[in-house]
Amino acid sequence: MFETVIGLEVHAQLNTKTKIFCRCAISFGDDANTNVCPTCLGLPGALPVLNKEVVKKSIMFATAIDAKVNQNSIFARKNYFYPDLPKGYQISQFEVPIIDKGHLVIDFKNGEHKTIGITRAHLEEDAGKNIHEGEYSKVDLNRACTPLLEIVSEPDMRSSEEAILYLKKLHSIVRYLEISDANMQEGSFRCDANVSIRPKGDNKLYTRVEIKNLNSFKFIQKAIEYEVNRQSNAWEDGTYEDEVRQETRLFDTNKGVTRSMRGKEEAADYRYFPDPDLLPVNISEELFEECRHIPEMPDEKKARYIKEFNLKEYDAGIITSTLEMARFFENMISEGATSKTAVTWLSVELIGRLKGGVTIENSPINSKKLANLVKRIDDKTISGKAGKDVLDYLMENDISVDDTIDELGLKQVSDDGAIIAIIDEILSANTDKVEQYKSGKDKLFGFFVGQTMKASKGKANPQKVNELLKGKLS
Ligand code: ADP
Ligand code: MG
Ligand code: ZN
Question: Which residues form ligand 1's pocket by a CB distance below 6 Å?
Fold first, then answer.
């Protein structure tokens, strides 16, 4: 049968304060054309000057993916005409990118791993935005000249699942490094997917189709799956040669289909040449060393959590999948929560309750509050079951954990006297069953536990109930 081959190009917008070749502020959502100057407007005579922060962030990224940094990379002009590109060319890197070969590791649910190659990563400026409104088209150049790091993978992925795992890992790496907001809705992390198929066992690369500008994990997955289907159907129908051509396609998010945007014949000849206004990027030994010290990356953090907190690999993977989640978890630990309970209450209970765009950062429950809840479960003030009621209540009300426990009357009864009183009542109301138990019907123990729990309205500490019942019945 067929094998899917996928290579991804990701544009990550670097989160510098100012643009890549001028001192205009980078912003999202400002009034149109308010953050512009002669350089990013492409006015004649204005000269670009490289922002050093962009280089620093690139070196950090190279370190994270074990890649070589080219000491002298070159900016080139990529020539094409489009209204949102006033200079008539985009400054990019072509022959010598700032970052050469690297790789990252993706983690499957079943605990397996796979290394995905990264061919190169190069710096470029973004274009502006065309806005089409009725019979008018407008151009906003606020985004023109913002720094992008384009990260190009090897065609190493074999399914949409692998593609998503790769993207999520890449996303978490740039977020851990804090070199990009990587906000997909705002377009600061966008992806072009190159997709082809081939008969299984064949090592040749077949014709690829490039699906442009995908900006959510869900759409990327759907677009790839649609495209794989389209290509395999064409192969089976004998129309592959006609229908699968090297071309750029767009994904229609409403209809869930990809459509041809332009073929190879219409592809522009970009007439790349080195930009005479910019010197080669010379990276000094000092700058290089300065930027090699990067924060702990997701894979390292995961390994540390497994060792330090005795987490299962799967749980550690979830907790370290985003920087925000890892920070939340660490805050819970420093507030005194135990790691095992913290993992469950964070990754299952809290995450499961966040709906409709609410994320861990704007969750109504912060790490301190969730840690307090976990502590009350760990010290047996409340049962795990009562904990869920407390969490539901906290999601809706701005109130402390302890006040919630009081208000809902969920405090566990661990006091021997109170539990013994209940047990005595249950036993004397069921003397027949006590006889049966004593003559060997062991199963009845569960009945006594159930009755005691019920009589305590679920508040008796189950462990205590077990202990005390065993004593009474022996
Ligand atoms: P371009 O500049 O035209 O986009 P590149 O050589 O930079 O071309 O490659 C773009 C991407 O396409 C890379 O991520 C690469 O891994 C991927 N790719 C190349 N050939 C194939 C193929 N046959 N099937 C799937 N992906 C491919
Ligand atoms: Mg491409
Ligand atoms: Zn500017």
Answer: 5-9, 152-155, 194-196, 205-206, 208
